[in-house]
């Protein structure tokens, strides 16, 4: 294949949709160790649809669609001197047809997407991949100049269709959007990758709401008012209904997942009086809730985070489609100790890589090498 034969152009839903869907079916989505895979349900751009700016590129060889890539742009906190806010370009959804790999198509697609980033004054491009995805790591780090940046953990917990018993020692209250935005900007603006347009996220139709938990007996009025005394311990989080955009499905999951699923369904039908925890039916595509903006303060806040996770679980039991709850936290964030998850469904070390796209400031090049200024990480639900 000569490079001149390859054409890269913007995605056109009328022209390319069927080809992209066919490519997705032919591609192995993630390495063999990946348990949960994405099912776009016929909407190739579902993962970037809610981003402030987005673009999808396709690569064509003759009449055959052989590759795709997606990107989005936003403003977020990255501790770039002299200001904390930078414009970030997120790279995702790179797919190359199996018979056309190792021909430079992936590199061409990434570089074309970076041109779009640069044209829109983006400071950094970043991407996320599984740590064990050798092909992706080799492409971005060894060939395209990206650097290892962070290794967050993706935590996945199944939803039992029975509600959990919540502690009577904890109060839970739902915040108004204005109250939630006030608290996020007050306590999380220094968190890495905190989105500058947090208000737009909270107001999105996919955001189900923001809740706070605090010890029963303590008061919390005027949540969004400055100068108010907060409880000594409290926690908050928001919930995004990702299942409205796309579904998850089991990839090459451990045999135990399938055995647990089938046996749990059978036991629950035969012996309903036992009221055993039931494993969800993972045998068909399913929806999920994504918990984001998890924050806690005070000595009792770990238990309050656990309580909020149980509260979200009980919300999910009312949805027929939601089978798991997902969140992503910093690799060394203490939150990992308080958020319930299934090890066999989770990814303990996701890999974030970053690349500088500007050359005018020497200091800007230090970001990929800089240690995190905080253990916490804000994962934008629009980029899940």
UniProtKB/TrEMBL annotation:
GO terms, biological process: auxin-activated signaling pathway
| Top-level taxon of origin | Eukaryota
InterPro entries the record matches: Acyl_CoA_acyltransferase (IPR016181), GNAT_dom (IPR000182), Plant_NAT (IPR052810)
Q: Which residues form the N-acetyltransferase domain?
A: 6-171
Q: Which GO terms describe its molecular function?
A: acyltransferase activity, transferring groups other than amino-acyl groups
Name recorded for this polypeptide: N-acetyltransferase domain-containing protein
């Amino acid at each position: 294949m000569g490079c001149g034969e390859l054409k890269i152009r913007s995605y056109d839903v009328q022209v390319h949709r069927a080809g992209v869907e066919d490519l997705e079916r032919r591609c192995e989505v993630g390495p063999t160790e990946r348990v949960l895979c994405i099912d776009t349900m016929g909407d190739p751009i579902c993962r970037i649809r809610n981003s402030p700016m987005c673009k999808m590129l396709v690569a064509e060889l003759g009449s055959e669609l052989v590759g795709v890539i997606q990107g989005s742009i936003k403003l977020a906190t990255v501790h770039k001197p002299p200001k904390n806010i930078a414009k970030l370009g997120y790279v995702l959804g790179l797919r190359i047809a199996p018979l056309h790999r190792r021909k430079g198509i992936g590199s061409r697609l990434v570089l074309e997407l970076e041109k779009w980033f640069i044209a829109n004054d983006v400071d950094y491009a970043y991407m996320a991949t599984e740590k064990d995805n050798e092909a992706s790591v080799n492409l971005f780090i060894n060939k395209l100049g990206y650097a290892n940046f962070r290794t967050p953990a993706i935590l996945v917990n199944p939803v039992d269709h029975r509600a959990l018993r919540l502690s009577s020692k904890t109060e839970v209250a739902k915040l108004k959007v204005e109250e939630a935005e006030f608290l996020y900007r007050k306590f999380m603006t220094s968190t890495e990758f905190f989105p500058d347009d947090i208000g737009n996220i909270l107001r999105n139709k996919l955001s189900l709401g923001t809740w706070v938990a605090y010890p029963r007996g303590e008061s919390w009025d005027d949540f969004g008012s400055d100068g108010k005394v907060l409880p000594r311990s409290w926690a908050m989080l928001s919930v995004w209904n990702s299942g409205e955009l796309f579904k998850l499905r089991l990839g090459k999951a451990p045999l135990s997942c399938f055995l647990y699923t089938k046996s749990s369904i059978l036991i629950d039908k035969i012996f309903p009086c036992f009221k055993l925890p039931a494993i969800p039916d993972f045998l068909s595509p399913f929806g999920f809730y994504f918990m984001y903006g998890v924050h806690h303060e005070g000595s009792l806040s770990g238990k309050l985070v656990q309580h909020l996770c149980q509260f979200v679980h009980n919300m999910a039991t009312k949805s027929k489609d939601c089978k798991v709850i997902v969140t992503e936290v910093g690799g060394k964030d203490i939150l990992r100790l308080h958020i319930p998850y299934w090890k066999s469904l989770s990814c303990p070390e996701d890999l974030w890589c970053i690349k500088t796209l500007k050359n005018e400031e020497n200091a800007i090049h230090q970001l990929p090498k800089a240690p995190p200024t905080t253990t916490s990480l804000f994962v934008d639900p629009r980029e899940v």
